[in-house]
Design brief:
Layout lengths: L3 E7 L9 H12 L6 E7 L3 H15 L3 E7 L6 E4 L1 E3 L25 E3 L4 H9 L8 E4 L6 H12 L4 E6 L8 H25 L11
Parallel strand pairs: 1-2, 1-3, 3-8, 4-7
Antiparallel strand pairs: 4-8, 5-6
Helix pairs in contact: 1-5, 2-4, 3-5
InterPro entries: Peptidase_C15, Peptidase_C15-like, Peptidase_C15-like_sf
Organism: Branchiostoma floridae (Florida lancelet)
GO molecular function, one term: pyroglutamyl-peptidase activity
């Protein structure tokens, strides 16, 4: 069986009637990740309850080698790789005008979770390749909304073997096609990074379920 890479984008919310994250993921899916990867993609609604149900289900059902979540940030001008996810502080209402009762992702969970992927390293590698003028930067604050919430949930369920990528709104300044191509390069670089770390024996990549 081919290793599965699962990539999600988000549906509409607020001013983002067309969410650049899902459009970018669809463009990336058209390009694919090569014959050695079973690529799966899914659109997530901007709803805490749906994310809390869907993300653990994906981990349990598919046991992906890597899960990558993509979200849009109206503040972003570059593609941004998030290193850290936060457990608490979720007070902003979702599209159903709801938020978690506890304002947390996982009750009694760690305050933060850090991806196994070194995002600074990934950025350096990607920026040395041809990405059509789309610089990639690292961040340590995913924003305490559905992006951060989905990331923490995924890191918790997938033994920190997950990633989150923020993209700017469409055409501000990058087209969907350019974003899709950049996503492909980033994810392929992440897979190479994980392969190297596994060969070195320095990354615990067993997919233990914590959900």
């Amino acid at each position: 069986m081919l290793p599965i890479v699962f990539v999600t984008g988000f549906g509409p919310f607020g001013d983002h009637e067309v969410n650049a994250s899902w459009v970018s993921v669809q463009e990336m899916a058209k390009l694919g990740l090569g014959e050695d990867v079973d690529l799966r993609v899914e659109e997530l609604p901007v709803e805490y309850k749906a994310v809390k149900q869907t993300v653990p289900t994906i981990w349990k059902k598919y046991k992906p080698k890597l899960m990558v979540h993509v979200g849009v940030s109206g503040l972003a001008r570059n593609i941004t790789l998030e290193q850290v996810a936060h457990n608490s502080g979720y007070e902003r209402l979702d599209v159903l005008c709801k938020c978690p009762d506890s304002k947390c992702c996982v009750d009694d969970g760690d305050d933060t979770l850090v991806s196994l992927l070194d995002m600074e390293d990934i950025c350096t590698r990607v920026n040395q390749t041809e990405t059509e003028g789309t610089p990639v930067v690292a961040s340590y604050d995913a924003g305490r909304y559905l992006c951060d919430f989905s990331y923490y949930t995924s890191l918790h369920c997938g033994s920190r073997n997950a990633a989150f990528i923020h993209v700017p709104p469409l055409d501000k300044p990058f087209s969907a096609q350019v974003l899709g191509s950049a996503l492909r390069e980033i994810i392929l670089t992440m897979l190479k990074f994980l392969k190297e770390k596994k060969e070195e024996g320095t990354a615990g990549l067993s997919l233990q379920n914590h959900c």
